[in-house]
């Protein structure tokens, strides 16, 4: 009689022990610090709820993620490959929670070779998908069949585990804004409508269409110094960036050949003048000499024009500054000894108090730039203090730059406040040019849409 009472008491205590174990596991899942610890708890600590020899956790997104008795899963192991292939085939067939006797399934192709990896009896628990978790399977294997009560208790534990595991999955901001599954249909439509309306309002916000272009500070209304004649530069009398006064000599040409030509012309003039005087004396009594006087007079006039021209060239051999300012050129050593032709650009004299911004906009970035639009120049030497200007000129045709690229020339005059700061001529940087006012969605999609149209030809 006592033995029968003890056996009956033991049978009553078994469900209570399983229920206490289930509550303990659920608390462990709630207190888990990470998804990795939850996976470890599922395949290892579930043994306290029911006995098994092997356990594996497989997810639809990552495959086999946890195995009992090991800390990490070796993805290239044959057992992992075989188990992952079977779980994917079973998932495609939408098999639910089930207990299997592999001895009866030996003829099925997908179970070929199970004796190498698993005991004969399996319990396959379907893990439903939740927000943040794509779903998966828990596979338990042992030598004895699984009881229905054990599978039912295991299903409850897996449902609680899925809730805890989904809470540990990283979520995007879009998932956080999405209403809960149990929210009412009206609330879901309100949230979706609010998000749509907010997106449309933000997309329609007016913004300024801006482009970036390389730019530099160039002189405003500069005086271009060109070669007044053909010759060789003999000496440069100023240095780069030197301030000069009006009529101050800048450079001089080689006068050796010019002086020789002038001396020859003067001697030729003296010779013709002497011959004219001699014929004029003979013309008093010789009619033939009198007829030659007109020819000699024309030759004298011709030689006089040549002498005056050479004297003027001799005076122009030393080129003066047309006005005061700063003289701009590269290097005096590159000019000395260089042959030049008439009209060739040599240097520039500019007023350092009058500067402007010159930018080069590529054809891909060219937008509607109107006179008066704002320009901000961020100098490479001083990017913290931008220079403000207003567009004054936009070229209609693209020009080829020294680097071989075509670009549109844009000039902008400095604001009065920035003109007083006197930034140095020649400083380079990046200019931000403002165009017309457009919507935010157009500002975002302009370049990608332009590239797409150029690629697909629409």
From TrEMBL:
What keywords would UniProt list here?
A: Coiled coil
The organism encoding this protein is Marinobacterium maritimum
UniProt-listed PANTHER family: BLL5650 PROTEIN, EFFLUX SYSTEM COMPONENT YKNX-RELATED
Q: Does the keyword Coiled coil apply?
A: yes
Say yes or no: keyword Membrane present.
no
Question: What protein does this entry describe?
Answer: HlyD family secretion protein
Where in the cell? Cell envelope
Highest taxon above the source species: Bacteria
Segments spanning the bilayer are none
InterPro entries assigned: UPF0194_transport
